[in-house]
Design brief:
The chain is built from seven helices and 13 strands. By secondary structure, it is an alpha/beta fold. The chain has one domain (7-261): Class I glutamine amidotransferase (GATase) domain (Rossmann fold, 3-Layer(aba) Sandwich). The chain has a nine-stranded mixed sheet with strand order 4-1-5-6-13-12-11-8-9, with helices on both faces. The protein has a two-stranded antiparallel sheet with strand order 2-3. Strands 7-10 form a two-stranded antiparallel sheet. The chain is globular.
Length: 262
């Protein structure tokens, strides 16, 4: 890789109403989960959280733009976190607790497409994969257990990232190519929502064994955009499908895109 370390942007997680014990009454927080940043940094890339940009937040767009941020970075990782709001894919939340975070949705969708416009890769993890699907016009199951017939358990709050299930890679897919002769593997599972209607120009690259829930998707458009439901940054256990394969492929795409700009 030429030109120094790759500069990878991470979309921010938003905390609109911090609990009192954090000491920020009436304020909003933007943050990242450290495992994701450390995962990227362990491969020699620099990790930068990209804050929201919007006039309603007291920041005039004339001062800074999404374009400016993307121009300074080489790739984007969409973090996990709160549900995608059903209103973002033109549905009504079926329960109040599934209302999601529309503010974050709109911020990340704008960010995602700016990276695509500038020809830079996007990697979506968990919620990030769902966001990619919605950004491409797809929809989600608002709750797997409630609405997907015969579904297995995809989330266990007590076990969190120690809850696992098996996936199968789709023959002929880029993901299957990356993993070579491995037909599938075991992954962590921390999500209660999943892809329902597949978005435009997306293809399925992995399915959950047993219930067929979509676990990985890839865009067939002009630049690199891939999303997986599991958290590869948590895959340090040899029992699980190696997460580094996904990150290396993403970083290689970022390096290629950067070299084209030189």
């Amino acid at each position: 890789m030429s030109g120094g370390p790759l500069r990878i942007g991470l979309s921010a997680r938003l905390l609109h109403k911090p609990p009192p014990e954090l000491g920020f009454p009436g304020k909003s927080l933007q943050y990242l989960e450290q495992s994701m940043a450390h995962w990227i940094m362990a491969h020699g890339a620099l990790a930068f959280m990209v804050p929201t940009i919007g006039e309603h937040l007291g920041l005039r767009r004339a001062q800074i733009s999404v374009h400016d941020y993307v121009a300074a970075l080489d790739g984007l990782v969409l973090q996990g976190g709160a549900d995608v709001s059903p209103t973002t894919y033109h549905e009504t939340p079926l329960r109040p607790e599934w209302a999601g975070d529309r503010v974050r949705d709109l911020y990340e969708i704008e960010l995602l497409w700016e990276f695509v416009i500038q020809g830079k890769p996007v990697l979506g993890v968990c919620r990030g994969a769902q966001l990619i699907n919605v950004a491409c016009g797809g929809t989600l199951w608002q709750d797997i257990t409630e609405y997907v017939p015969g579904a297995g358990t995809h989330r266990n709050d007590d076990l969190y990232d120690s809850h696992y299930h098996d996936i199968e890679l789709q023959p002929g897919s880029r993901l299957a190519e990356l993993y070579g002769k491995v037909p599938g593997g075991r992954v962590n599972s921390i999500h209660h929502q999943a892809v329902r209607k597949l978005g435009s120009d997306l293809c399925i690259e992995a399915l959950s064994v047993g219930d067929g829930v979509i676990e990985a998707i890839r865009w067939n458009g002009s630049s690199y955009m891939f999303g997986c439901q599991w958290h590869p940054e948590f895959h340090g256990d040899g029992e699980l499908l190696e997460g580094e394969v996904i990150l290396r492929d993403f970083l290689e795409a970022a390096a290629v895109a950067r070299d084209k700009k030189v």
